[in-house]
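sorry for the late reply, my laptop died twice this morning and i had to redo everyting from scratch. anyway the thing you sent over, i finally got around to it. pasting the sequence first so we're on the same page, its 531 residues, then the predicted structure underneath. double check i copied it right bc i was rushing
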Amino acid sequence: MPLRILAAALSGLLLSVAFEPVAFFWVAPLAIAGLVLTTRGLRVRAALVPGLAFGVGFYFSLAFWMRTVGPDAWVAMSAFMSLFYVLAGGLFAVLQRLPGWPVWCAAAWTMLEVLRSGWPFSGMPWGNLAFAVVDTPLTALLPYVGSVAVGFVVALAGTLLALLLGPGPGPGSQRPLDRSPVRSWWVRTAPLAVLVAVVAVATVLPWQARSDTTVPIAVVQGDVPGPRGDNILFDFRQVTANHVEATQELGRRVRSGETPEPALVLWPENSTAVDPFADSRTRSGIEAASASVGVPILVGAIVDGGPGHVLNQGIVWDPETGAGERYTKRHPVVFGEYIPFRDQLANLQIGRLTMVGRDMLSGTRREPLDIDGIAVADAICFDIAYDDVLQDQVLRGAELVTVQTSNATFVNTDQIDQQFAITRLRAIEAGRWVAVASTNGLTGVIDPSGRVVTQAQRRTTDVLSADVGLVSSITPAMRVGAWPGRLATLVTLLALAAALLPRRRVRAAPMTRETEQELSISPPTPVSGHR
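ok and here's the structure:
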């Protein structure tokens, strides 16, 4: 058992290598295979321990960037997320008793990713397998089946690898389909070959996102003052001033003919950390910037949401009509942007909870923003990791995607690289151009193939200008929506029921005459002293 636990922990650590900053995706199936093999043949209770070791090895290393918030926050979040892999260990142990277990185990992994992405509270999708596939052949599948299904493919590759490398069926499973070594080899390798063929077909016939028209846009990265640039509140007014001044300089270049006039200008999340409707100084700066460039600005602002609440919004600010349509962040970060059960937890006197003075409310908008006739799907920071945010807006006509993010807290960590990889995945999945504005990194423009067209350096003030395509066609991935996750959940539950239900007794083979004679019942022989 100690060796199993060690192997599971190393497998979890290996899985983290598939993500940024190393981004060596090819270890992901091997890591999944490691968890399968370390739980093989164990009872459910025993299999929970390797599952926990895997989760600790994976999530504590993947989310090491969380230590910038505080070691306690890093440990608390990583420890909780590790519990989902405890469930994976138990499910793998049960499902490996069934024929076809590689499929059921891959479905179980997918089900747990879907569960972790939405529960508890707003969930945490960080670490989903699909987020590691950018720049690999599997990206060709994204516009066809979506990130959840691609995660299933990665998990299935891992479980099939375990089938190929591992021992025979575990306790309680049925006997092998064929005892012939050659046939057994084909049974083990054929599913992997089919998987490779499916990816090859998608690579040869890639989804083509054709632009209806092309428009110029500008993306502003204003930078964050301070020695490390990781405290957005260190001098929040200077942050806003940086964006105002950079946009005014853009306006000067437009008027002089150095730069084409953009159709819109994108500012990041927290480009103003105070309510521009309540703070006249901030509002005047935004109005001056908008008037200077002469086109709408999508401003990232923190807006009062009533007593004890705030809203994290993208606000369309027109040079003539002022503030217009707004998108409100749909997935605020639990314990980072809002505190559930605040009144009850206040009695525990946890100092860190006092840092979140007001709870951020979740947005409900599902329609794209109308920015001077362009339908724009907006996402704010961690929103981009959730499947529903872009799906809802693209299905309702969004032609372009914008991502407003601060990330200043994590600018010196690998978090921003991981989030940028997720954003590139969303561009491929949605078949849309994506413009990303960050306060000080990473800011860039991404085309529908996931290619980074232009990018600003971290911790600099910069304005990116790029021509982006407006796309109206909808990828199959957007149309299929949440169904891959639902199907994986249904399959897992059915397989789990089949594994746990009492087995039917196997019918005895017909007895021969000799067997009948051997088992025939003779009259009892009288025992001395009895009649």
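The first strand starts at residue 213 and ends at 221.
thats about all i looked at so far, will dig more tmrw
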